[in-house]
Amino acid sequence: MTSRPTAGARAVVIRGARIVDGTGGPSVHGSLLLDRGRIAAIGASAEADAPADALIIDADGLVASPGFIDMHAHSDLAVLRDHEHLAKVSQGVTTEVLGQDGLSYAPTDDRTMSIVRQQIAGWNGQPDDVDFAWRTVGEYLDRVDRGAALNVAYLVPQGSVRMLVVGTENRAATADEIARMQELVAAGLREGAVGMSSGLTYVPGMFADTEELVALCRTVAEHGGFYAPHQRSYGKGALEAYAEMIDISRRSGCALHLTHATMNFGVNAGRAAELVALIDAAIANGVDITLDTYPYLPGSTTLSALLPSWAAVGGPDATIERLGDDDVRARIRYELEVLGTDGCHGVVTDWATIEISGVANPELAGFVGRTVADIAAEDAGHAWSGDPTALFFALLEADRLATGILQHVGDEANVRTMMAHPAHTGGSDGILIGAKPHPRAWGTFPRYLGHYVREEGVLGLEDAVAHLTSRPAARLGLSDRGVLRVGAVADLVLFDPAAIADRATFAEPRQQAAGIPWVFVNGAAVIADGRRTDAVPGRSIRRSPA
């Protein structure tokens, strides 16, 4: 698949850079010419062939790299409403893959759009400056094409598709319903989606059994796409959940991209080698597998995601009504505190690891940045004082399920093991809303190159750049992005390898990265001398029909 750059950007000569071309090969010093949205020349001819009015950038001491591709992003609304989109372009991201975790805003109808908007408000908010007038994947991508800060690829969200056809009930789909879901997935892929995502700990995607997923993945494979599942567990039973995804890929013939692929929670500390062995054995047997991770320990989701799946049947309004029943609360409490809910990956909830990152109700703002355990212990005089599970229920009701959380459940050894895998790519999984969102939304890519490359040496520079550029481009089927070569689209980053660093922290998460003075999208500078320009050259990247 080839791409269409934005025409009309001013020609640029990047003089004397250390060129890391994205292939993983050794770097070279030289110059590049960017013209008409593409790389027009590399080496001595770059300056000789430049138009007289070309912008000259002295890149001495800087690395020229392909733009970074965020394989797991939650900017589905941000790309439409925030044309600055500084969180991503300032860290060198030039393409994002949206439609993640099986829930997004296309395809939908009027009924399901209303449900999805409420269900994933903790990921994207409930903005009043978006009209939500689209319904199909193609119409959503058309909206992106009105102008965005960066490029967008989209995954058909399996949970949204199931909601359209089956609803939010916990039951097996009929043969006719599976056929209709296949039609919707195929339509989304024909309209330009690059694959299909699932959220198998989220309602209603989690109610799909293996056979249903195999059938849908056969459709994805027929159209040349890939499957990107958020699997059924990243805690207790994680390896079994990974094995199911690999089995689906093998049986359907569909390429597999394991999203935020790690082993979380205490039950999996130090066990990433077991996951690597499972992946490597499948690859050796011909299964096409890639994966992405973020370079942090905590995860991020919504507070309502911790509920058992049966409590979320019927959609957000039904869930809130259900929470008013004392018997229901007692059942949920038992699963949270004793059994471990499927929403919390089969692990008993440790409220000391659950930090509130954002709320929709301004009356709850004082809870942000604190764990559920601390709030329950420190705030006296409430019905939930001393009882974190009671506080959990109170927050769900008061914030109408829109509360965002951080889960402090990661393991450093696992993170390092997974990022070193040859099938690895980078994905921020960044949620952009909330008072204190996860810093990965602003810091993922500079953290890879600063902390884990320069400071820790987990990866070499050229190898790390390949992880973040050409490897994800190959998974997306892009033949002219993710590498620096003549004729490639001019998605490009200039960074200082001695200074690049994530400055976003858990206390102050919205901090622009250091050491990235220039970022180009389709040949147009979106970051110039470290500052955001007014350019919106990003467009949808659509998979050509297979």
TrEMBL record:
<protein>
    <submittedName>
        <fullName>N-acyl-D-amino-acid deacylase</fullName>
    </submittedName>
</protein>
<dbReference type="InterPro" id="IPR011059">
    <property type="entry name" value="Metal-dep_hydrolase_composite"/>
</dbReference>
<dbReference type="InterPro" id="IPR050378">
    <property type="entry name" value="Metallo-dep_Hydrolases_sf"/>
</dbReference>
<dbReference type="InterPro" id="IPR032466">
    <property type="entry name" value="Metal_Hydrolase"/>
</dbReference>
<dbReference type="Pfam" id="PF07969">
    <property type="entry name" value="Amidohydro_3"/>
</dbReference>
<dbReference type="InterPro" id="IPR013108">
    <property type="entry name" value="Amidohydro_3"/>
</dbReference>
<feature type="domain" description="Amidohydrolase 3">
    <location>
        <begin position="56"/>
        <end position="526"/>
    </location>
</feature>
